[in-house]
Amino acid sequence: MKKKTLFLQLALAASLLFSTVSYAAAPETSRDIPVGGSGQMEMIGTIEPTILSVTMPTFVPFNISNSLTTQNKVISPRIRMKNNSNIPVRVDVAYTKVDLSKLNHVEWSNTGTVNDNQIAIGLKQEETKDEMPTSLAQARWLKANVSQDMNVLILNANQEDALYVVGTLGQNVSDSGTFNVTPTFVVSRTSAAE
Q1: If you write DSSP's letter for every residue of 120-147 in order, what string do you get?
Q2: What does the pLDDT read at residue 37?
Q3: Fewer C-beta within 10 Å: the chain N or C terminus?
């Protein structure tokens, strides 16, 4: 019996010798850090993945002629743009490549005001559905071969709207010539419809 008790005492002593006591730390919501001290704070953030998707045409043919009796001398199709995103977006023109090499003695106007040998092309938001604008009021003029940051449209989530190509030309510019205008559109997130 003494051997059995001695064995149990040794087993108990060995288990106490090799055992560890652990405590679970309670989460703290705040604590004081003394001046000159340091501490750590865990910060947790979430990323909201957002896919910006806007549908627009990649090619828009238009005609420009002095024979039109309206202030706007361009006939263009309706340029439909649809925001497929669940947040508002802005559509800007960042750059416009202009090639007038097929028009003799013709210059570009960045302002919409033209002299006899100039041409100006811009974009205008649709005012009346499916109606080509006749006026150049509130047109946004494309600047040739320079960077520009020009907003042309703000679209709410899942909203559709449209633009038209507008423009004017001086009296010495031939109606039968051709030229290329290639604007670079940039779509970005905006906080709200403006």
Answers
A1: EEEEEE-SSTT------TT-EEPPTTSE
A2: 72
A3: N
DSSP strand pairing (107-108 vs 118-125): parallel
Containing 8, the helix (H) or strand (E) segment is helix 2-18
Q: What is the pLDDT of residue 50?
A: 74
**Predicted pLDDT of residue 52:** 82
Please name the residues in contact with 184: beta carbons below 8 A apart, sequence gap of 6 or more: 93, 94, 95, 96, 97
Q: What is the pLDDT of residues 138-183, one digit of tens each?
A: 999 999 999 999 999 999 999 999 999 999 999 999 888 899 999 9
Residue 78, both tokens: 């309706």
Q: Are 124 and 140 in contact (CB under 8 A)?
A: yes
Phi, psi of 16 (to 5 degrees): -70, -35
Burial, 165: exposed, middle or buried (Cβ in 10 Å; 0-12, 13-18, 19+)? buried
94: helix, coil or strand? strand
Tokens of 121: 């092309």
> Which strands make up the sheet holding 147-155, listed edge to edge?
147-155, 89-99, 180-189
CA 122 and chain centroid, separation: 20
